[in-house]
Amino acid sequence: MGMKILQPTDWSFEPMDNYNKNGGDAFSVSRFGYELFPEYGVDVDYYVPDYTKPVARMLKKLLKLEGCNLILQTELIKRSKDYDLIYYSADRHPYLLALARKLRICKKPVLMVCHFSYDTRAVDNKLKKLILKIERNLVFSSMDQILFNCENLMRLAIEDGNLPRKHQIDSGWGADLAYFSRGKFGVHKEKMPYYFAAGGANRDYHTIIEAFKKLSYTLILSCPKSVIDEEGPLPPNIIHFDYAKYGIAASERLREYYHDAKAVLIPVMYRNHVANGASVLVEALACGKPILVSDLKTNFLDVEKEKIGYKIKLHDTQGWIDTIQKFEKLSEGELDSMGNRAKVIAETKYNYRLFTERVVKYIEQLVK
What we know:
Elements (H helix, E strand, L loop, with lengths): L2 E6 L5 H8 L20 E6 L6 H10 L1 H15 L5 E4 L6 H8 L7 E5 L11 H17 L2 E4 L2 H11 L15 H5 L12 E5 L6 H9 L4 E5 L2 H7 L6 E4 L8 H11 L2 E4 L11 H9 L4 E4 L14 E4 L4 H12 L3 H17 L3 H15 L2
Helix pairs in contact: 2-3, 4-5, 8-12, 11-13
């Protein structure tokens, strides 16, 4: 094929590549197919903005994350001339890139993995609703191809945003089945059985901690140390795993905790436009684990409809207690059925290989 594409990211892929070359076994769903593209004849360069430059520092100081976003998109537009396609997999609003594509300032096709529902029904402020609608129309009309990171976000975009037919594509994004079938099992026998909660962004760890303070079951909590500092001393049945200590190797440690968990818990703080907890959820699917998650319209999928877990109301400590107690009453056969259904969803609908192949298919269509 001989195609060359540019993929933006907020973090360098090089340390993970080097770690794996030297015998490590690290993985991140947030590389969005990067390491597999060469197998399909796609030459990919990733781009990480240099936020230490004076202009970048100024924008970052004035606009914070949005300043970083502007720097990222501006550089993509400038560099696009040297590539056959821009592969916009970043979890960032691409309004500037979309405008540049619409005006043909960016002359190369853009394939976007969309992480947003663009659902104006979730916004109360009239001005924010208008801004979101303008961005949505710009993105939907300007991007050459959009693939949604899950079917649920796509459904919301269809319902509220009149999503064009050509963009009504579920990407199949998920975790690497081969990766999660490897690694050590039974590493944490002394802690078993245990529940496992992981993730950093938009997590309601306060509620889950308060729930397990009133339960006797063990919870392994993989979260920033700052969360634990705010919550104060934990009871013996709540164990903190400080993944930040392990750097790139953290993914291998997390895999061990997934392997032996009774279920994976995803407590969410609030609804926004992304599929909250998506990375943890697809990793749990790949491991064939039941999933207990806060009940949101933007969830990656409906765990109750799929019969792979339960939903709990936002910030409902008693709801988590009741659900855990309900879960504890399930038979081994019922638990196995939940886990098996989760694994089948990963094998047939959401996994890293399927996702990469789907992305490559649309790259080939756009680059002729």
